[in-house]
Structures are given as structure tokens and as C-alpha cells.
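Trying the structure run again after the queue cleared.
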Amino acid sequence: MTSVQSKENTKQFISDEGKIPSSEKCAIKHEDLKSILLNLLTKSSVYAVAQLVTSSGCGRKLLWFLVLLVGVMGCSYEVYRFLTLYFQYPVVITLEVKNNWKLDFPAVTVCNLNRYEKK
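Done. C-alpha cells:
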């Protein structure tokens, strides 16, 4: 497409007042947002999200959706358990002081591996 054709196509969308009609703005924003969101999800560090977006078959998409759903539910459950335990403020301290003034030392035997010579 040449620059002249591009300018002509752009002029078609612009009304007499020099503004893009609102329906065209919405369509342009929607397509732009869709491509940005697709790019973001494709490059996601959450592996299941990237696979969900890039998978071609319906079965694979369903499988990755279930994997993602189970992961999110498991994480949510663990966070819930942690927070409920945290806000209960359980404090358990067992302190036992034992003074043992007399220490029993173990018997120590030193074995010399050098032979004793009788001279």
C-alpha cells in the first residue's frame, strides 16, 4: 500500500469536522486493545496462561483452563488457611529452665597407635 492510498483510506474515516467518528474510534481501540492483551497473555510467565492463549485445539484449551483453575484454587485455599491461622494469633511458648550444677563428664580413652618399644 502506498502512502497516497494510505492517506486516502485515512480520509475515508475522518468526517467533515476533521474528527474520527465515535464508532470508528471504538473499533480501532478495541482492535488495538485486543492485540495488546493477546501479546501480553502470550508472553505471560504463568505457563498455563500462555498455553491457554496459544493452544489451537478446544480440548487443549479446556485442559489448560482446568490446570490454571486448579492452581488458582489451590493457591487461594492455602492463602486462606494461612490468613485464618495468622489472625487467630496463636502463641504457644513452653519454657523450661533446668539448672544442672554437676556435670557428668564422659570417660575418655586415648589410644596411641605407636608401639611401645622396650629398650
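Helices lie at 3-13, 22-42, 47-54, 58-87. Worth checking whether this holds up in the mutant runs.
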